[in-house]
Amino acid sequence: MERKFMNVILLGFGFMFVFTAFQTMGNIEKTILDSIRQDDSTFTADGYTSLAIIYATLAVCNWMAPSVITITGPRGAMLIGAVTYLFFIITFLFPRTWLLYVASVLIGAGAAAIWTGQGNYLTLNSDADTISRNSGVFWAMLQCSLFFGNLFVFIKFQGKTHIDLETRNVVFGALTAVSAVGIVFLLLLRPTRRAPAIDDVKCEIVAEPEGPLDAFKGAIKLFCTRDMIFLSAAFIYTGVELSFFSGVYSPSIGFTLAMGENVKQLVGLSGVFIGMGEVLGGALFGILGNKTTRWGRDPIVIMGYFIHMTSFFLIFINLPNVAPFGDTMDTSYITPSSYLAMLCSFLLGFGDACYNTQIYSILGGKYSDNSTSAFALFKFTQSLAAAACFFYSSKALLSVQLGVLAVLASIGTAAFCRVEWSDRARSRLAVDNVDDKLSPVTHSLAENALHYD
């Protein structure tokens, strides 16, 4: 197997194990912290607040991530970040309000390092022919973390209305071990040289910074470019829908008591179906990456838009308006259905894969010479939006949250397509200019050939 593709596979395994621990924890954090508060009156931490702190810190620290990577390199940054994820999981074994919030700050800083390093490392191991494939393969492997972790939680939570201490410790201990395995895979990553420029025609190129200060200035300069501003609208939407499906939707299912006695285990099952959608989308666009790129990235993003809009409508009629706040016997426009809830989970995951695989592809292709700053800005914008969503999730009714998602999806999709269509038009214009310059030469050669005959 080609060395660079092997690096992508190892990267995928590393992130799959690390995020099996974190994404599973994020999915159940609201539910499980409520159980801890029932057992320990001194514990007052809130799941939404913890997740909001994580993403707010991640957003701020993303501005420093390019500078850190100039010192540590992408592999070093990913290892540092992975250790903070491990620490975050371990703190759940010793529930203290202050410790959880400190760990939330640390993992937010670590997330900035691990994700910016990942984007840079993936780009370095890709070229024009492999960037779409590698993005899809990585995304599919990463999202297997939702499948395996939440399947484990589904089994452990079966038949439970309250998550007791023993069950919690088994889950936390298993997730800690899984996170450690992910760090081992990241240690196996090999250094690689910079890949060739992915696009023959480069627009708004920002040179790769040489030092920490230059990296910071380069990130600010890139952030102010027209295309990055447009892409930021898509980044914002992915951040809000990420926080919704990873921290709000699944707990809302678990709080909807009208679904039956085993409703708590549906929290884990929802994560499994989200993971199935993510993996299918990532695998599909990875395998077909070379074929889909000839039509552009916009058809896939538009497909993700309609899939998400469908899921938002179904969630609106299926779950009660107060479901994000805690246990409720309320119903919505129909009797709450667990089957419909799982279908929506799958649609949320598949639609998210549509957006994220194409964002990875456009950043790795359009900004291959400045991938560190490009991916840092992506995670900054996405994380800031996710933090904002978690802050208002504890106050906003479900219908309000779905309305915000629908508006941002429309704006973000339109903005992404605007950038994609502009790039395609510039590429065609550049090719036409080359043809115009070559045509006199070609005509002269043809005349000489006829004269020779």
UniProtKB/TrEMBL annotation:
GO terms for cellular component: membrane. Gene3D superfamilies: MFS general substrate transporter like domains. It is found in: Membrane. Keywords: Glycoprotein, Membrane, Transmembrane, Transmembrane helix. InterPro entries: Ion_channel_UNC-93, MFS_trans_sf, UNC-93-like_regulator. It is a multi-pass membrane protein. CDD domains: MFS_MFSD11 (cd17407). Belongs to the unc-93 family. This is UNC93-like protein MFSD11. It comes from Pieris brassicae (White butterfly).
